[in-house]
Design goal:
It is a single chain. The chain is of the alpha+beta class. It is built from 10 helices and 4 strands, in the order E-H-H-H-H-H-H-H-H-E-E-H-E-H. Strands 1-4-3-2 form a 4-stranded mixed β-sheet. Helix 4 (98-127) packs parallel to helix 6 (166-193). The longest helix is centred in the first third of the chain and has 34 residues, at 22-55. The two termini are 27 Å apart.
Amino acid sequence: MKGRHHHEHEKHHAHTHGAVDPSIVSTSRGIWAVKWSFIALMVTALLQIFIVYITGSVALLADTIHNFGDAATAIPLWIAFSLGRRKPNSRFTYGYGRVEDLAGVVVILLILFSALVAGYESIHRLINPQEIMFLQYVAIAALIGFVGNELVAEFRIKTGKEIGSAALIADGYHARVDGFTSLAVLLGAIGVWMGYPLADPIIGLIITVAILKIVWDSSKMVFSRLLDGVEPEVIDEIRHSINHVEGVEDVSDIRVRWIGHRLHAEINISVNSDLSVREGHRIADEVRKNLLHHLKYLSGTTIHVDPSEESGEDYHYPGIN
């Protein structure tokens, strides 16, 4: 097939007749995870807000505000996963997966807002101290917050990693840090009990700093996805997988992007120029099958087959570099 190039664009669901599209399965799991974590965090926050009312603890208030904010982050994620079920169309040819990345931005903004509110309340209480009542209830509420957040964190992170959702993983780590901030509230209550009343608002400020750290770390992950950043190990895994396909002489170009929690890949491979179009197609099909087997997040592939003497985009577009 010297001088000729063969393009193959395959979608996973085109070769799974009678099976469920994995992108639908993953978005359904995402919705399931978001729904139950929302319920768990809302129950936790409601229990805590009652204790805040009767005790006046600003550290617990900061933790409770953040738990309400964390529960609220489930809403944009729920919307994103619901839209992700829609099929591609003539306007959105890659589907609606990018909404999930935008939901990640909304999650970050909500977390930032909760940090600002918690910080304001803590500074206000430092300036205007207030007696804290029923310290034992504050301790109980702190433990409730830790347990609730850790359960939600484990649930979100596990599901997020299984379906490849950066937004859900970020929200899971967010919940995990929330659990540790709840333990900080417990330390604040102990400090007040020992005769250090300012321990409560100081713990509130520490919680604020912890929340801001979450904002920074989560922003790097989410905005990297928005800018089509991909983990280097994904590229290595793709190259390793392709190199094990008989007939592939070289992998000249690999471009991969996340769209929501699904991967899309564009790959240039080179084969012997004496092969027929049918043989080139067979090799491309083997490459596609191998990639789908090794990369469970992969949704679509575009495989460009070149003769070995004329391979790569450097050959086709010599003026782009």
